[in-house]
Structures are given as C-alpha cells and as structure tokens.
Amino acid sequence: MRCANGIEARQVDELAINIDPIQVGGRLTGDAMKAVIAYGDGYSVCDNCRKPNRLDYISKPPIAEFHKDVAAWLNMDAVRTVPGARRGFQAVAHTYVQKGDPVLLTSLSHYTEFLAVEGSGGIGCEIPANDQHMITPDATATKIEEVRKQYGRVPVLAFIDHVDYQFGNMHDVQAIAKVCHQYDIPVLYNGAYTVGILPVNGKDLGVDFVVGSGHKSMAAPAPSGILATTAERASEVFRTTAIIGDVTQRKFGIKEPEMMGCTLMGVTLIGMIASFPHVKERVKHFDRELENNRIVVDGLLAVEGTKILSEMPRKHTLTRADTIGSFDKVAGSHKKRGFYFSSALEEKGVTGVIPGATKVWKFNTYSMTRKQAEYLAETFGDIARENGLAVSG
Amino acid sequence: MTFQALYTLTDLRVILRETAPQHDLDEKQRAQVQRLLENLERQIGSLKQEMLK
C-alpha cells in the first residue's frame, strides 16, 4: 500500500517486533500519532504566537508549559527544544569552544559530538574506555592532566554520554562531572539514550547541560530534542540577539542566536508534547524494561557460543551481542550466507537487525511487552535449533 | 468527526503494535478492538450523513 507517489506506507512496527537499536525509544505514542495527524502543516503551532514572538512563550498549544515541565522533570533551570540532540551539542560547543580549544570527549562518544567540536574549531581529546568499555573518573582526571601538559590549558568543555551508543553501558557521569568541575570544566550530559527512557536528574548528576533526543528516546518525530541548562549557563547559551541592521536599524527582540530563533515549529514539537505525559510515566518503570531485556539476553545466551559484550547485568536495554561462536558459524555454509539470520528473524516477525550481520550486532528491547520479549527469546532459540546450533535449557 | 474516526483507527494501530507479530489478542484487547470498531462504524455513519447530505 502506498501513502503517496513512490512512498510505501510504513508498517514496520505493526507487523513485527522491532529491535533496531536506535528506533525503539522514538516510536510515537498513540497520543503523539493523533497530534501529528492534526498538526502536520508547516508552522502549525504558531496560530497563537503573540509578542514577544518566541516559540517557548506560546501558551496554546501549551508549549510554554511544556518547557517549564521538562525543566522541572530533569531538575534543571531552563530548557529549549532543539532539532535533535546534535543541535544541542552544537549550540553548547558554539558558545564555549573557540578555534584550537581542547574539548573532552570519550572513546565511546557519538560522532555528532565530534562534529559539534569540529564545527567550532575545537580539538577532540578522548578519555579512553577501559577493558570493560567503561569511562571512569580516574581516566578522566588522567586525560585532563595530559591535555593540560600538551596544550598548556585544560579542556573548555566535556561531553559525557551517560549510556553510550556502542555498548549501551552506563557510565558514572556524577563522578566524572565532579572531576571535571575540579578543573572548572563545564559538563554536557549526553542523554540521547536516557532522557525519556529512565529517570534523569541533572542537579543530582551535577552537570551543566542535559541534552536529550526526542526521536531517539522521547517518543517524538525527528528531528527533535531538548537542551536543558543550569540558570548560570542559561544566560550564556540562551543569550538573546543584539544585532542591529545597519540600513533598517532592525532589532530582533528576544530571539536567541544559538537557537536560530524558533526551533521546532510544528509536528516535531507537538509530537514531543503529546507523548510527554506517557514518557514521564514510562521512565518510572524502567525496571520492567530491564526485566524484558533479561529475558531476551537469557534467550540469546542459551544459544551455545553467544556472548554479550555489554556490561552485565544489563543496566540499559541497548545491548551488544557477539554471535561469532554461534549464528556466524552457520553463515559460512548457508545458501543465504550471513543474510540467513536477519532473513529468519524477519520470517518470524522480528525486524531491526542489520541484514547480513551475524558476528557482532546490537539490539534494543525497549518498550516491548513481556509477551513480545518471551517470543523474541524463543525465536532466537528456534532459529539456532533450525540451523543445527546447540541451545541449552 | 473526521478526526474522531482517524483517532479510532490510531487506537487500533497501537493495538497492532503492542501485539505484533502474532496479533493474538487477549480477552481485554478483543473487547477493546470490538468497542473501537463499533465506534468507527458509528463515526463513519455520521460522516456519511454530514458529507453526503
């Protein structure tokens, strides 16, 4: 079925259990789907925009209230919506990083954090992960000292991912931020995999900025996200325009240069707002998500030769599996080669594993039901047995 | 009424997602689907009356 010329109706999640590592937390709630239907037109949230003419002041629909609610929910002082977490990284980097400035990243940082640093002319300095793929406070202190030795000054900013995209490991941001602050380095908390998934408290973590992704973790359309700051940092990142046109003498009110004025003016923002009550509720039940993840991980580990490369026990639903010793053994002799695995999963109604991947791959069990988790665990076992692999239990 | 019908269909879509891939509905879900389909029929009836009068 097509929804328009050349565009197939997408019904991936209606037909299958989706375990795509980046998609599951961004799937819309029913309320967001409904809001999207009504607010699909371009500047749809701007019907009641009045002076001072800025998105976060609009009260109908309740955009102003949403901004306040998100700030309170994250225990931060100010919030803006941004077109994706990456634009939050960019706004902060553009405010604090000058050409040649060293900036702290990690060996597990997302590429968009690097690009944000590069865009401002900064130099990326990675805190190395240890053998367990964890970023530690000690490694942070060591790296800062190395940077100081090499550049004659400490980094001007630190980007720390609470849960990294490679292993889904949870890093001790609170302790890392403490180390950074001992050197007066502001800390950006990358919550792309946490804000909207599990409880996040910015002040408790002791960070200066919290960045979240709407389309990755807040059940919102892409591109959407949030940038939250402390009051101290808000006046810097969210400073207002001062430019004046030399011919027209025009000024631009309280628009914010780092936000390029208004940010999400339609369907993205309305989707995020519509999902927000559900998102606030679902983070309280992350323990259920971990239980479903455990069921699936146990099902995978029952297939002889399978390893989980992420930290165990799991603290997040994004998980990296190593099936070189199991499913990959079949790939060499199977007529579909490595594609047999994703193909078998698709046939059984499971999608989201990269076609052809049988060695190391990632999956995310977030927001599936228990019944779906049990089905998925059984499915891994069934595919293994059908291909002559040993399955325990 | 157009929106109401679309929203009813959206509620059905959510159930499809929650029950994929087998769509084996439990008793509660079956009752919910039954109610939604009845609402949808009523809503479509109203649309016919309003738009084709």
> Could you tell me the mean pLDDT of chain A?
98
Order of SSEs of chain B, N→C?
HH
CATH class descriptor name of the largest domain in chain A: Alpha Beta
Q: How many β strands of chain A by DSSP?
A: 14
| Poorly predicted regions of chain B | none
**How are helices and strands ordered from N to C of chain A?**
EEHEHHEHEHEHEHEHEHEHHHEEHHEEH
Using the 3D structure, state the CATH architecture of the largest domain in chain A: 3-Layer(aba) Sandwich
Approximately how much helix is present in the residues of chain B? over 70%
Q: What would you call the structural class of chain A?
A: alpha/beta
**How would you name the CATH homologous superfamily of the largest domain in chain A?**
Type I PLP-dependent aspartate aminotransferase-like (Major domain)
Gyration radius of chain A (Cα, Å) is 23 Å
Annotate the secondary structure layout.
The complex is a heterodimer of chains A (393) and B (53).
Chain A: E1 2-4, E2 7-8, H1 12-15, E3 17-18, H2 30-38, H3 63-73, E4 78-82, H4 85-96, E5 102-106, H5 111-119, E6 123-127, H6 137-151, E7 158-161, H7 173-182, E8 187-190, H8 202-205, E9 209-213, H9 214-217, E10 225-229, H10 231-237, H11 267-282, H12 286-301, E11 307-308, E12 318-322, H13 327-331, H14 339-347, E13 350-351, E14 360-364, H15 370-386
Parallel strand pairs in A: 3-13, 5-6, 7-8, 8-9
Antiparallel strand pairs in A: 1-2, 4-10, 9-10, 11-12, 12-14
Helix pairs in contact in A: 2-11, 4-5, 6-7, 12-15
Chain B: H1 2-19, H2 27-51
Helix pairs in contact in B: 1-2
